[in-house]
Amino acid sequence: MTIRHCFRCVAVLVVLSSSLLFNVRNGFACTSAVISAKASADGRPMLWKNRDTDEQRNRVEAFKGDKFDFIALVNSPDVGGGQAWAGDNEAGFCIMNTASYNLKAQDDTCTLTDMEGVLMYRALSICSNLKDFEKLLDTLPKPLGVEANFGVIDTYGGAAFYEVNDFQWIKRDANDIDTAPDGYLVYTNFSFSGREDEGMGYVRWNSTSKLFGDHLLEGNMFSPEWILSGCSRSFYNSLLGIDLVEDIPASGYFVDQDFIPRGSTSAAIVFQGVRENEDPTLTVMWTVLGYPPVSCAVPLFVNTELPSYVVEKSKDDFECRLDEWALERKAKVFDIKRGNGKKYFNFTALYNKNGSGLMQESLSMESKVFVLSEPLIDSWRKRGSISPSELSSLYEKIGFLIFD
To answer: Residue 186 and residue 227: Cα distance in Å, rounded?
Structure first.
């Protein structure tokens, strides 16, 4: 099947299920960053995405691509592949996206939309580096049916965002000192080349930029653990000038608006790439399924047996255990169902002075996951390959830590 044929077939599916895709489209509002090797704590590039979507059920699936096998974050109900919302392949190519709402040309009347997941699925299947992705963007039939910022890293130190609409794309390189003087780029739901002051996510962009900037000013470099704990679970709001961790609301409740994690946040991913000459399959997909404040990261690797709790439970049940566990915990935070109650969340259920909040529990769990995982991952890097038995044992220990 040609690429043109693939895209047109999916376009038919979009039309046939337009009401479903319309609802999901309204929820695309992610927070993300691409971090070059020079800005990371260990000299490996990173890619981060807090995924916001109306589809709260997520899982991870392994796929056999045309050139490369890959693993990807998918919507739990989606069966048979075809769309990916973040992923990495055996060549060490990693990709994710955020929706942009100011990039589509005003005279663009194209009715083909919501193809971002299809494009990323194709990229994971055939791309090994940034140049391959650029070639894909150039050669795919137009219009693309996308309006998004795509973050990409590869095994050659490449780290960039691509602002892409139906007919054009612009690259912003995290290794370019003029574009990214500190070696990283933060994105939410607008594009810098798009229409000024349109789009979404400006408060989140300011908040995230402040968190990243302050971290550097304190003399720190970036790591997956800091990104997941310090950003994916941050309740700092730059417009209001508050951080709920420091200013716990008197009632315990606060409005769910413009924080990095929100009720619409369904997952958080940090891809930790490799150094030059390291095996690309040692790329780590640190994966938090479910609302990040109440869930826990698990390190995943392409071409390995994924832990059962991040994939579907059975051929008839495409939910996954980690996501279900997180959704149950999230319900204790968003516990008002009547009237406008869904616009509020119980912050003290997440964080309180007694130290018994769900986020406090998750942060403690996740810290132990990193303590268990990082020495093993370092040993695999030195050895040049992953030990299947050690990985299986690690997943078993993480499972006991989370669920027991």
So the answer is: 12
Q: What is the pLDDT of residues 293-309, one digit of tens each?
A: 999 999 999 999 999 99
CATH superfamily of 3-403: Penicillin V Acylase; Chain A (3.60.60.10)
Output the six-digit token pair for 18: 């337009």
Instruction: Give the tokens for residue 176.
Output: 């370019």
Q: Is 221 helix (H, G, I), strand (E, B) or coil?
A: coil
Q: Among residues 298, 342, 341, which one has the least CA distance to residue 322? A: 298
For residue range 131-145, what is the model confidence (pLDDT) as tens digits? 999 999 999 999 999
For 4-23, write each residue's pLDDT tens digit.
334 433 433 333 333 333 33
Torsion of CA 50, 54, 56, 62, to 10 degrees: -70
**Which long-range CB contacts under 8 A does 330-334 form with residues at least 24 apart?**
330/290, 330/291, 330/294, 332/294, 332/358, 333/291, 333/293, 333/294, 333/358, 334/256, 334/263
Angle between helices 3-16 and 116-126 (to 10 degrees): 150
